[in-house]
Amino acid sequence: MFQGKKLVCFDLDGTLIDSVGVWNQVDAALIQELANIEVDLSQIQQQRDLQLKKFKHRPDPYLEYCAYLKALYGFAPNKEEVKNRRYAISRHFLDHVVELKPHAERFIQALKQQGIQIALTTTTSLFNVQRYQDNNQNINKKISFNDDFALLLTRENVQNIKPHPEVYFNALQHFQVQAADCLIIEDSLIGVEAANNAGIDVIAVYDQYSVHEIDLIKVQANYFAEDFTELLSLAQ
């Protein structure tokens, strides 16, 4: 699986870090604050995934997602204010709640010891990545995004979010490698579709918040792993 690979690209949310559920909590808190409505967390996630996929060609899909929430739940503030409030709520979660997936740091070090370049290829914002690096001791005690990764690509580096393959094409271009030299680690169906659209082999790692699409993930991924311990055994 890893033999002959020169580059491994990691998604962030749900793959390297246990954060998808946190964003469900953030959106639940936002809806509670602005509309005084309690919403099921699994419903929130499915709504968000659907809307972000729908708005993937817009300049700011997350702003359009906030407009969708405003219309659905009758928020008074405009969509820009909703987005600002969403990220204000998220800061506590980003700094103190989000954790690295178990043994992800060991897997990263194993790849580096083999001379494989690693990149972070996420369409979350650089703001979030920097908060993890600067403020979240659950994460920054184990890995350094600046030191452990040869390249950081975030939302600011692409015009199109996943499942568009742009972020992966950018990584290939940066390292001047072919798709066959690269391997992608993802957790969601959207991420796996992005890898497929780029023509790059992809390993899907289990995340509890992708269970509703796990059958499709297993069909479309080249390999499915339960956790990083399993991947560590394959990489050594």
TrEMBL record:
Transmembrane segments: none annotated. CDD domains: HAD_BPGM-like. Pfam families: HAD_2. It comes from the Bacteria. GO terms for molecular function: phosphatase activity. InterPro entries: HAD-like_sf (IPR036412), HAD-SF_hydro_IA (IPR006439), HAD_2 (IPR041492), HAD_sf (IPR023214), PGP-like_dom2 (IPR023198). This is HAD family phosphatase. It comes from Acinetobacter pseudolwoffii.
